[in-house]
Amino acid sequence: MIRAGLSAVILAGICVPSFALELYVAPNGHDDNPGTKGRPFATLNCARDAVRQRKKTSKGPITVCLRGGTYYLDEPLVFTTEDSGSEQAPVVYTSVDGETVVLSGGQRLQLNWKPYRDGIMKAQTPVGLRIDQLFVNGIRQRMARYPNYDPKVLVYHGYSRDAFSKERASGWADPAGGFIHAMHRHRWGGYHYHITGKKPDNTITYEGGWQNNRKMGMHAEHRFVENIFEELDAAGEWFHDAKTSTLYYYPPKDIDLEKATIEIVRLRHLVEFQGSQKKPVRFITLQDFTFGHTARTFMDTKEPLLRSDWTIYRGGAVLFNGAEDCAIEDSTFDQVGGNAVFVNNYNRRIAIKGCHIVGAGASGVAFVGDPGAVRNPLFEYGQRQGYADIDKTPGPKTENYPADCVVEDCLIHRIGVVEKQATGVQISMSRGITIRHCSIYDVGRAGINISEGTFGGHLIEYCDVFDTVLETGDHGSFNSWGRDRFWGLKDAPAEQLPQLALLDTEKTIIRNSRWRCDHGWDIDLDDGSSNYEIYNNLLLRGGLKFREGFHRKAYNNIIINNSFHPHVWYDNSHDVFTRNIVMGPYRPAGGMTKGKWGRQVDRNLFTTNDADRTKFAAHGCDENSIVGDPMFIDPAKGDFRVKDNSPAIKLGFKNFPMNNFGVQRTELKAIARTPKITPPRFQQESSALKQPHKKVVVRLTADN
Asked: I need a labelling partner for 125 at 20 to 30 A (CA). Which of 48, 169, 216, 377 fits?
């Protein structure tokens, strides 16, 4: 399996605290043993139950030490309030002296391979076996698919308009059990369907399509099929015939099947923290593990989030549900089938630190609260309600949501391998989430996504987010929307909208981070995103977008080869855009034809020409802005600090560090990529700036 190469000398991997009670588990142990170093347990369930008993007599910390090896779980390891530690006596599960410990939801198969045809091998499997994913020597293989996998193609690594056409299906004997994967018509995520069969005229029948909350149908071209026997024609592909219990596999030339490790997937979840607000699971930490072999969950991604194109599955390789002061540290999530970590409903002070999340089928880390905690929740994008009908009490109705949690010093990449409405870190109906020193890249959609404004108070800092929106569209490396109570509110007094926009969201801060999106905006504050403070950010490609929200302040940012994108502003937005460095004219969209733009759009440095600076003077913009060379110190090496005599300094711009974006942990930083640095353009090239897809809209008033 893919591993982060964690050092054997880090504290998390050393199981020697002299003050702690120690229990041991080993693959060659036995659950009748006492759990000592010399006579360890065999299973984590036994160790967990032993902790419960030892806590009755031991008042100090307890450490459960796992010897190296793969632990194939028969069922998820479940922690309840009975398993809790305390602040003075936490419970820690960790590996021994840096030995590699894999917690697997799979099963290893011992197979007798025989030639089938054309390089394809076959083997009998146990009767009744269902195979969702196949791993060979730790690497996930591909179901037989059409079109074939092509790493050079971004969308699905291969797509075709005729993926399940009558002509194509005419060559399939029995496609039942196959899958259709297709992008949303507007590339706002994707859909998934289970093939149920075909009609006599070769029309494919299927069910599904609930994975996107804005149901507009499949994209005409971006689609492919998998798990079709007749499409088994490329190295690395496989097909399992459950009726005959036969596994077919086309091994690459470098695979020796006689020596290969063959593993399949069984479980959706590996570890669950199952508590409640009244009886939470507390002070349990998982350290230095590799989590792998969890099932794909795309057909169960059904629950809509608020007024968005998102649906979710409330689960992951590790599920937190009613926990406090618990953590996952220094661990690897290796090619899990769905979400890696899901923090569901009531949770407080959950920490994900020093982790490597790679190849997840859905999102990396998701924080999602209960819609019942939201006042006046709506679920469909087009739904509207009246001013007289809404509850005007600020804040949430209940405490049933994640709060005060952190994702820190994590490397998160190759995310959304299966599901395309997925992200590195997802936040919805949560409060006070911190994302710090994370490197996030190779993502089909956003790197970080904040779904609606409820309940804000988040902090994003020192992150490095790039190579995002690789397969979808109309999005950003950072993406948010704020379709909260105020948004589209009927009959609302215009003068009250700025205050109504604050009912659901506390201030969110984005600072000291580096962003790059080549297929959208670097930072995209979409529909109604409100109460943001954005400063000390380096935006490398896609620019900064504000759309129809309130109380947003962006200052001291550097926008390379792009500019500011104001989309559909309220007349009294109270927005501020000042002391930024931009490289081209602003790029308005959707009814930005009259009126003043925000409280202040001024004192910015344009690197192109005075025509760009004065282009929107009629809207009260940039009377005190200037044009000039920012005098970057070393842009070729990514150092966009400016020299002391830069004209930006005269405007009040202040340098911020350029050397601490992304992961800082030595082992992770050594394998993390960094974004491409494009040389800045200072001349009159503003017309060549690439502009992402615009929405066609009307100017907002209090009545629409």
From this structure: 169
